[in-house]
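question for whoever is on the cluster today: can someone run the full assembly for these? two chains, 367 residues total. i dont have access anymore since they changed the login thing
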Amino acid sequence: MAHHPTPNKPDIKDMAIEDKWDRVHDFFTMDHMVSYYTHKRLGTVKEWVGDTVEAYNKMMGRFMGPIAQFMGKLAVNIAPNMVLKKAIQEVLYSDQMMHGPGEYEVSEPKDGEITVRFKNCLRLKKQNEMVKKLGYPFEGREICEVEKMHLTHPNHPTTKMGIIPTDITWEEGGCLWTFKKV
Amino acid sequence: MVQEVKKHKPDIKMYPPNIKAMPLEEKYDRALDFFEMDHMISYYTHKRLGTVQEWVNDTVEAYNKSVPRFLGPVFKTFAVLAPNLALRKCFDAVFNLDQQHHDLSEFEYSEPKDGQIVVRWKNCARLKRHKKWIKQLGYDFDDREICEVEKMHLTNPNHPGCKMGFVPVEIVWEEGGCVWIYKRA
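^ ran it for u. tokens below:
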């Protein structure tokens, strides 16, 4: 360190945490979109998706850990609807890292099936803004299609737990997913 | 690839879920983690496919379209007339924006002299997260490999900084951080 002294602190103000979160969200959206763009033009999207779901299996503790406690076989057999409801609640709690308040709606689970809606989706809004800014030849919705590739992938942790999306509908400003516990 | 957008009105009733609002600090921390994980997966895939350079080039091209316009023609003129002041102002702006990933306490710089400035990231929050994710994902990486990607961005001739004439002439990985020496070319 002695060879390169840096005695000065920059003359800047502390960034508010709201701004930090918003900027990280934007930066993530851009970085993720650049990855998609490169893989799309190289024809390697499936390779990327495969690596991503493999990684998801290793990071359950951080983003999906609480699901595991509800997904024991015994609990599923005794009360599948309760398990499904609790699992989706945990997923939506974690998912708030990328979404604004009030974006979620869920149905009452019935016969091992639950429907989840993302309305006025902040991620979609940012994807549409970023596609325009970067001048990419695709729609913001294509990044949602990548999400769909993750969640329907046989190696995705929730698919392996038996929570399968049976219907996915793109709605204006959001989307609707129906999951079935098989 | 994109399916038609539908107006879907299911018969079933929908309700707001019974979940707590996530505190902003937790949202920010989780978003940072998710970003670093996602970025690391991208690197992993490109590394194993041998396409890291393609990815870096596309990223740098994207930066040209997304950077704030402080790197504009007026600033170019200013940089020629007063290079030391320009360097200082440039890094004040860079550090200001970089707070999205770092705490203010991580940044230091030297007094610019002869069109050259030394900038330091100490106790780097990003490096800490890189180490954590490499371990968690079980990737066979060196701790510094994501920093090396950053180096590829910032030394790429198409990077907005390089195009403005702010070129890193020396980069040192230090324990817990790094030092970059920039010269106004």
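summary bc i know u wont read the tokens: Chain A has one domain: 17-181. Strands of chain A lie at 104-107, 113-118, 163-171, 174-181.
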